[in-house]
Design goal:
InterPro entries: DinB/YfiT-like, MST-like. The chain has 6 helices and 2 strands; from the N terminus they run ββαααααα. It is mainly α. The chain has one domain: dinb family like domain (Four Helix Bundle (Hemerythrin (Met), subunit A)), CATH 1.20.120. The radius of gyration is 20 Å and the shape is globular.
Length: 233
Amino acid sequence: MLAYRSPLGHLSSPWANQRPLVTPPPRRRTGRAVAGGSSSPLRVREARPVRCPLMTDFDEQGRPEPPLMGDETATLLGYLDFLRATLEWKCSGLDAAGLNTTAAASPLTLGGMLKHLAYVEDHWFSRRLHDREPHPPWNTVDWNADPDWDWHSAADDTPGELLALWRDAVARSRDLLAEALATGGLDQPARRAWPDGRSPSLRWILVHMIEEYGRHAGHADLIRESVDGLTGE
């Protein structure tokens, strides 16, 4: 199997007009007034808002920084969103050929990673945490016929389809997390137990998701560098 099934020149991008999961800080134009009522040429610089504990900082890639002084829930959610944004960054700007590129002896691809993590999001936050039926396309997959269908079938999807599938899964996960946290804390057990009767806590699920994304972010680093030389953590 390709992955542990615990349930998860630059090329033109078909994603360019889609709204990212994270939005960088606003930019503003500033200028210096001169005699005669005109101003010097305007230059663009980053706005620097006053810092407060409730504000989110963004790095140079537009990823939300985990809160420095957040509580346990805010810290876990912050790191999960940071790693989600890292995956999106590593997959951005690539066409189908780029998303289907492999590195070294591994068959992993960035496109397969997007589809796999879309599945993992649905599996843990919908299927396990809330005991709901799998969302399409997972509800019709014959996992016995191909345990790695998410990875393999990604080659048949367009870049736009893969990113939309993953983004939709992340948006649903956020809603499901908010729903769970509105009625309980991190100690609450998943409603759908494992075959042996045990149920992981919401805390366990969040830590597992951070581990899952962190592991694949490392894979994405190597694959993306092999595509076009892009590097960065």
